[in-house]
Amino acid sequence: MMPGVNDEQTPARSYDRSSAELRPCTIEPGFMRTATGSALISMGETRVICTASAQESVPRWMAGQGRGWLTAEYGMLPASTGERKQRDATRGRQDGRTVEIQRLIGRSLRVVVDFEALGERTIYLDCDVLQADGGTRCASITGAFVALSLACEKLQRLGRLARSPLTGSVAAISCGVIGGVPLLDLDYPEDSKAEVDANVVMTGEGGLVELQTTAERTPLSRAHLDELLGLAEAGIARLREVQEQAIASATADSSEHSPA
Ligand code: UDP
């Protein structure tokens, strides 16, 4: 087991992990052949399909400027949660949480895109939660980056992009405080009893993109905030490795299959 923070105080965790460990994380690249780029990310029991689809136009308010755009949508399948969640289309509107999460995903991914290099096209990122066990917005961001990278590589292979519009990588992880102990990557049972719940988005170079922290029961001390950021930074470095492996394996696969 990896050395964690305050190991002697760490409550029992899923996968018998320490306070500083992620749940088992896998990213299956190219999960959907119909999308320009896709990935299925699993963080423990949380599973999200992320796709990137390119459209050869931009919203009307951006036309003629030589720049592209990227936007994201997020949804949970009805059976992704313990109690069936009604589809937005049946209810007739999206809930506030969905809107907040898809804006976060879009903002996070836009940080690593050079829109001039993308040219006048729009990338749609769709993140659909198959199974939710906490941390779905973070898994969406981490998986969406892989889908976006694969889409950009494909557009380059097809000669539709002269150079990659990606300026870096981005990933996200949740963390929180339970019983005074800072923990990385909360699952749902942990999330529902956390005193403090945080979502951290960082670039592969360690630049902070977004930090959302909510103290629900007891205020967060500065010392704990620093500890949470330290846990998140190490977790994101590990996620970066998983992203790189997924992208590399998909790239090797597509060059094997493309004509010489
Ligand atoms: N959840 C649920 N139904 C909902 C919203 C959330 O069952 O309508 C569960 C789900 O497991 C989710 C967790 O609550 O992953 C935490 O939700 P939160 O809003 O904090 O977002 P997340 O941690 O998934 O980004």
Sequence of secondary-structure elements: EEEEHHHEHEEHEEH
Number of helical stretches of at least 4 residues = 6
| Quaternary organisation | single chain
Shape: globular
Q: Which stretches are poorly predicted, pLDDT < 50 over at least 5 residues?
A: 1-6
Ligands and ions found: uridine-5'-diphosphate
Q: Which radius of gyration do the C-alpha atoms yield?
A: 19 Å
Biggest sheet, open or closed, and with what strands and sense? 5 strands, mixed
Estimate percent helicity. 25-40%
Overall mean pLDDT score?
Answer: 93
Number of strands: 9
Cα separation of the termini: 46 Å
Main structural class? alpha+beta
Beta-strand content bin:
25-35%
How would you describe this structure in keywords?
five-stranded mixed sheet, binds uridine-5'-diphosphate, 260 residues, globular, 6 helices, 9 strands, alpha+beta, disordered N terminus, four-stranded antiparallel sheet
Q: What does this 3D model show about the protein?
A:
- It contains six helices and nine strands.
- It has 260 residues and is of the alpha+beta class.
- The strands form two sheets. The protein has a five-stranded mixed beta sheet.
- The N terminus is likely disordered.
- It binds uridine-5'-diphosphate.
- The site of uridine-5'-diphosphate (UDP) has 12 residues, from helix 4 and helix 5.
Summarize the structure.
With 260 residues, the protein is of the alpha+beta class. The chain has helices at residues 88-91, 96-110, 115-118, 136-157, 188-191, 222-257; strands spanning 25-29, 37-43, 46-55, 69-76, 122-131, 170-178, 181-184, 196-203, 208-215.
